[in-house]
Design brief:
The structure is a single chain. The chain is α+β, with helices and mostly antiparallel strands. The protein has a single domain, classed as ph1033 like domains (ph1033 like fold, Roll). It is built from five helices and six strands. It has a six-stranded mixed β-sheet. The chain is globular.
């Protein structure tokens, strides 16, 4: 199993909208960055990800699961852009902010701490466990 962080803006796609999709899930569409797209190409069914709100909140607010492997992004007619589908697993009881991650020395190498602009990024198992514990999971 691999772990990831997916960034969204609440005004574009909120955690509540993701929850409302249930087990069917939703395309994680609109990605137009090659590194983020390539990260999706590495994903396997059942991989877990943090749902991170990137604008005002700047916090991990939920856990999502990859439920459909990489496929063409239905929002654009350009074969370069692909996406996976994700479904909500659970809410994070205590959202974990970017500031909290930056303040935790054990997360100093986390991609989120060092490259806040990458919209889909890998998370190590150790980082996953730390953020989950910080969030009350």
């Amino acid at each position: 199993m691999q772990y990831w962080l997916f960034k969204s803006e609440a005004s574009t796609w909120s955690w509540e909208q993701q929850l409302a999709k249930g087990d069917v899930g939703e395309e994680w569409d609109g990605i137009r960055n090659y590194q983020a797209r390539n990260n999706m190409r590495l994903m396997e069914l059942g991989d877990l990800g943090f749902f991170y709100l990137s604008q005002n909140e700047k916090a991990v607010v939920g856990i999502i699961e990859v439920c459909t492997l990489i496929h063409p992004d239905s929002t654009i007619d350009d074969e370069r852009w692909e996406c996976v589908d994700v479904k909500a697993v659970k809410s994070v009881p205590n959202p974990v902010t970017l500031a909290m991650c930056k303040d935790n020395p054990a997360l100093k190498d986390m991609v989120l701490v060092n490259n806040t602009r990458l919209s889909i990024q890998p998370v190590s198992k150790e980082e996953w466990d730390i953020v989950c514990k910080m969030g009350g999971l």
